[in-house]
């Protein structure tokens, strides 16, 4: 998709702050440093629209972006950062659970996984959580440019096997460096968004 406009709508922590209207939403989740901001920026053709607001130590908010006036991306703060207090972790969990379980506009979640390593325990927990609530999930395997092409299939298999990826969920190999996977990711996202 050619993105002609993208901007942040609101940083929300509770449902009263979610944007009104009926635009389809795609949420994006992943552990800290997985390449989520880079993915969002690459998809939107922006240098730094998604950035520090979701970094560890910053206020944990759901950041809603409006794209071409037709859909929302919802940037979920990264998980798995060791230095987060138990209290902060609990607040994060509550915020995500409320969003996932109450938001009618949610069409699918993009779950980002670093292609170089097997999914972490937290990645598996997140995938299981999404499947528990029947949320369609798109796995984006990030940083493809960091491993040789000859190893891609092996790493993809480890991700699929570790998550026990359901057949209805898709997996896209992605690189924000080369743009690999961008068109495929857009196709899947627009499909889930009914666009
Ligand atoms: P976030 O914490 O998930 O938002 O991760 P960032 O997007 O900030 O990326 C974390 C680090 O990984 C940064 O140094 C990025 O430049 C790097 N990175 C992200 N995506 C890629 C990628 O596709 N290829 C390479 N080589 N580096 C990447």
From TrEMBL:
Protein's UniProt keywords contain Protein transport: no
Cofactor: Mg(2+)
UniProt key word Nucleotide-binding: yes
InterPro entries (alphabetical): G_ENGB_dom (IPR030393), GTP-bd (IPR006073), GTP-bd_ribosome_bio_YsxC (IPR019987), P-loop_NTPase (IPR027417), Small_GTP-bd (IPR005225)
EngB-type G domain location: 22-195
Signal peptide from the UniProt entry: none
HAMAP family recorded: GTPase_EngB (MF_00321)
Family: Belongs to the TRAFAC class TrmE-Era-EngA-EngB-Septin-like GTPase superfamily. EngB GTPase family.
Biological role stated in the UniProt entry: Necessary for normal cell division and for the maintenance of normal septation.
Name of the protein: Probable GTP-binding protein EngB
Organism: Metabacillus malikii
Lineage summary: Bacteria, Bacillati, Bacillota, Bacilli, Bacillales
Gene: engB
């Amino acid at each position: 998709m050619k993105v002609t406009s993208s901007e942040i709508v609101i940083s929300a922590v509770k449902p009263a702050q979610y944007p009104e209207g009926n635009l389809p939403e795609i949420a994006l989740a992943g552990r800290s440093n997985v390449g989520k901001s880079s993915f969002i920026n690459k998809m939107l053709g922006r240098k730094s629209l998604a950035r520090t607001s979701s970094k560890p130590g910053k206020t944990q908010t759901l950041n809603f972006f409006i794209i071409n006036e037709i859909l929302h991306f919802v940037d979920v703060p990264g998980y798995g950062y060791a230095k987060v207090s138990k209290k902060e972790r609990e607040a994060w969990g509550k915020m995500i659970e409320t969003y996932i379980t109450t938001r009618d506009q949610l069409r699918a979640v993009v779950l980002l996984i670093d292609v170089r390593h097997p999914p972490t325990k937290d990645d598996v927990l997140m995938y299981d959580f999404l499947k528990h609530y029947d949320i369609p999930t798109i796995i984006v395997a990030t940083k493809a440019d960091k491993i040789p092409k000859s190893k891609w299939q092996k790493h993809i298999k480890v991700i699929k096997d570790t998550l026990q990826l359901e057949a209805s969920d898709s997996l896209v190999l992605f690189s924000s460096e080369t743009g690999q996977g961008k068109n495929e990711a857009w196709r899947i996202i627009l499909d889930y968004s009914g666009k």
